[in-house]
Specification:
Elements (H helix, E strand, L loop, with lengths): L6 H14 L1 E7 L9 E8 L2 E8 L4 E7 L6 E8 L10 E6 L2 E6 L8 E3 L2 H29 L3 H28 L5 H11 L3 H9 L3 H4 L2 H15 L10 E3 L5 E3 L7 E7 L4 H17 L4 E7 L6 H11 L4 E3 L8 H5 L7 E5 L5 E4 L5 H10 L3
Parallel strand pairs: 1-7, 11-12, 12-13
Antiparallel strand pairs: 1-4, 2-3, 2-5, 5-6, 7-8, 9-10, 11-14, 14-15
């Protein structure tokens, strides 16, 4: 809020905000829960974790107050029968927003239903629609853990791509059918990870003015020019970062080659799982005018972990990082909000493919250079 010299005037919008953004969050779980059992309310605000708690009485609890943000905010409720802190596996995610939010469950928070406000009602609808897809992912994970052969890996990759396509189609339809839902912004964030600007922009522009006008909506609108700058067919934005020895390396120094700009981090499990595929493709095509520049989102002070991961995973190409985690300048330039993520550039620096995972990278390079 802007600072206003006249205190009496400044108080008016504050009071209006407090009146307009009051919430009640109440719930019922197993009636046997009494003190010292507590339910904890947790959320992250401006980089810090905020925690509140109430004691259960006959399985009932109630929080009330003013929402910490003008937008709905994703929060977690955690139940601890001993009241010793929010460190148990019994939890539920929901959206804290203006109005009365009601949680009901015969036993645990895990099995609770959330009703009462628009975003939570929309979220319940979305979760129900996503259940078959989440079940498919769970089944795939079991299959991946049970079978480790190359043939099984290829079959699992094919299955994963099919599930991802179903998820993308569901997300797109949900956004189109719920143009006045705040949840559609969150779904759009997920959809944008694997989509291109030409698909993303119309979905955002189709949202209602009210949703576009939220803080999250304004931030997404600010990202659209960056998404357009890294759309298929665009010239990849120039960047220059320090490599593992501290030498500044620019993207433009790779002109004349096909280049994979690969965003990853040592702490990222999916990235480390994907690295063998990238290594295989690099070793097959590195003599065919193809190279990679790895851009790490490792944390400040974690250079040793970054270097150790490069060595352990056998990543023998150029690596750069400013070691600023999600504040990575290059990640911001490329509108990267999730990793692993990559961009394949042609010798002129034009983006010709994105998010090539599993066999996709090898197949694309085979298309460009022929089978090896």
């Amino acid at each position: 809020m802007k600072k206003i010299a006249l205190l009496a005037i400044a108080c008016l919008p504050v009071l209006a905000f407090a009146q307009d953004n009051k919430y009640v969050l109440q719930g019922t779980v197993n009636a046997s829960y009494n003190a010292p059992a507590k339910v904890y309310l947790e959320y992250r605000l401006k980089g810090k974790m905020v925690t509140d708690s109430v004691t259960l009485s006959n399985g009932k609890f109630r929080f009330e107050g003013t929402t910490p943000t003008a937008d709905p905010i994703n929060v977690f409720l955690v139940l601890n029968a001993k009241g010793t802190g929010p460190k148990t596996s019994d939890y539920k995610s929901l959206y804290l927003e203006k109005g009365t939010i009601v949680l009901t469950s015969p036993d645990s928070l895990n099995n609770a239903k959330i009703t009462g406000t628009k975003t939570n009602n929309d979220n319940a609808e979305y979760d129900l629609a996503m259940k078959p897809i989440n079940d498919a992912y769970d089944a795939l994970e079991k299959q991946q853990n049970a079978q480790k052969s190359d043939s099984a890996e290829k079959a699992n990759n094919k299955t994963e791509k099919a599930i991802e396509a179903q998820e993308a189609a569901l997300n797109k339809k949900f956004i189109q059918d719920h143009s006045d839902s705040y949840l559609s912004l969150n779904v759009l964030e997920n959809y944008a990870y694997g989509a291109d600007y030409v698909d993303i922009a119309p979905l955002f522009n189709g949202l209602s003015p009210a949703i576009q006008g939220t803080e999250a909506g304004k931030k997404f609108a600010e990202r659209l020019p960056k998404l357009r700058a890294v759309a298929l067919g665009a010239t990849a934005p120039e960047f220059a970062e320090a490599d593992t020895s501290g030498k500044i390396v620019s993207l433009s120094s790779f002109r004349g080659k096909y280049v994979l700009v690969d965003f990853w981090a040592s702490w990222c499990g999916p990235c480390r799982h994907e690295n063998p595929n990238v290594v295989k493709a690099f070793n097959q095509y590195k003599e065919k005018n193809f190279t990679i520049i790895g851009v790490s989102l490792d944390r400040p002070g974690a250079k040793d972990k970054w270097l150790a991961a490069i060595h352990k995973d056998g990543l023998t190409w150029t690596h750069v990082s400013d070691l600023k985690f999600w504040d990575s300048k290059t990640a911001g330039l490329y509108a990267v909000r999730g990793i692993p993520q990559n961009f394949l550039l042609d010798p002129n620096g034009k983006i010709i493919a994105k998010n090539l995972r599993g066999d996709d990278l090898e197949n694309k390079l085979e298309e460009l250079f022929g089978k090896i």
